[in-house]
Amino acid sequence: MIERTLVILKPDTVQRGLVGEIIQRIEKTTLKVVAMKMVYASKEQAGEHYADDQEWLISVGEKTLKSAEKKGIKLSRTALEQGQWVRQMLMNYITMSPSVVLVIEGHSAVAKIRMLCGGTSPQEATPGTIRGDYAVDSYMLADASERPVQNLIHASGTIEEAKREIKIWFTDNEIHVFKRVDEDLIYRKGSS
Ligand code: GDP
Ligand code: MG
Q1: pTM here?
Q2: What are the tens digits of pLDDT across the range 108-148?
């Protein structure tokens, strides 16, 4: 199914000059960049993107608690408290310096881009993924330093999340409808 997903090349990517490198990896999959801009996120945009949504906050916290548990560490915060704390740090971080936001379109775009990113914590992300190849950060190091895990890239987790997030960063007329020259081959019909 042809889907759209939102990608944010977060401030660490822009600051480290990795924008081109990461976009190249996305383009090479044959997924299509249909919108792109550099933004200095406002507090409002940051607050909407990292929504004050209980389910998401708990899911953020739970991932961290599980990772700590595997290492035999017991965190004092609940999943919700961890999620709320992370949200505050994310909102500060994403508004600190510019990011590059993109809409990516193509077959299974949401899941494909998530696979390309790798796991949330670069320490545990598989080599070959963006987070696995270009970062070493971990939940523990980031928490101890009181900042979000520096993992370079945000990508929507589901189609619904993508629809909600794209509206925060782009108007309809900033998302372009066009054909890549390789599309006829990629989505080819028939066997002759
Ligand atoms: P993602 O979808 O893989 O980006 O991960 P989440 O949606 O769960 O979390 C959003 C972002 O918050 C992550 O990309 C990290 O930058 C950051 N983050 C998540 N969990 C933690 C945590 O436990 N501690 C810290 N310091 N940052 C976190
Ligand atoms: Mg997420």
Answers
A1: 0.96
A2: 999 999 999 999 999 999 999 999 999 999 999 999 999 99
Q: How far does the centroid of ligand 1 lie from the alpha carbon of residue 82, in Å? A: 10
**Tokens representing 141?**
């190091």
* CA–CA dist 104, 152 (Å, integer): 17
Catalytic (active site) residue 154? yes
Report how far ligand 2's centroid is from the alpha carbon of 172 (Å): 23
Residue 41 Cβ < 6 Å to ligand 1: no
What tokens does 110 get?
A: 């949401």
- In angstroms, the CA 109 to CA 97 distance is 27
- Nearest atom, ligand 1, residue 61 CA: 23
- Using the structure block, give the residue that is written with the tokens 């209980």: 54
Nearest to 39 by CA among 90, 98, 97: 98
Task: Write phi, then psi, for 141 (nearest 5 degrees).
Answer: -65, -45
Three-state SS at 107: strand
Q: How far is CA 136 from the centre of its chain?
A: 16
Cα–Cα distances in Å, from 27 out to 31, 43, 69?
6, 30, 37
Pocket lining: 123 vs ligand 1, CB cutoff 6 Å: no
Q: Answer yes or no: is the C-beta of 31 below 6 A from any ligand 1 atom.
A: no
Distance between alpha carbon 179 and the CA centroid of its chain, in Å?
25
